[in-house]
Amino acid sequence: MKDTGSSYTSNLRVQNSSSNSKKLWVEPWGDEVLIPPGVTFEIVAKGPTGDCLEVESSDADIAIYGWTGSTLAIFQSGELIREYLIPPPPTPPRARPG
Predict the structure, then answer these.
(1) Tens digits of per-residue pLDDT, 13-72?
(2) What is the pTM of this model?
(3) What is the 3-state secondary structure (H, E, C) of the chain?
(4) Where are the domains positioned within the chain?
(5) In angstroms, rounded to a whole number, what is the distance separating the alpha carbons of residues 70 and 34?
């Protein structure tokens, strides 16, 4: 993670070590990328400080979650394969019951 004041860059490597392809879900952009067996993707996220990438993994899927105001890029062997340049807006506040 590289801190540049009010924003930072976070790098994360995601490897599919299984013998089957896995889907990489990229949220909140609602996209999916297929990760072939044995392939490693590098995820580069940039955005405001105060939050971070989140990762969930299952047998069939991996989900990466960006945060409010972040942008994200996915690389394979140094080559850009996807880029998400529209930062997600903040989520609306929850309505209070009653």
Answers:
(1) 999 999 999 999 999 999 999 999 999 999 999 999 989 999 999 988 999 999 999 999
(2) 0.85
(3) CEECCCEEEEEEEEECCCCCCEEEEEECCCEEEEECCCCEEEEEEEEECCCCCEEEECCCEEEEECCCCCEEEEEECCEEEEEECCCCCCCCCCCCCC
(4) 2-84
(5) 22
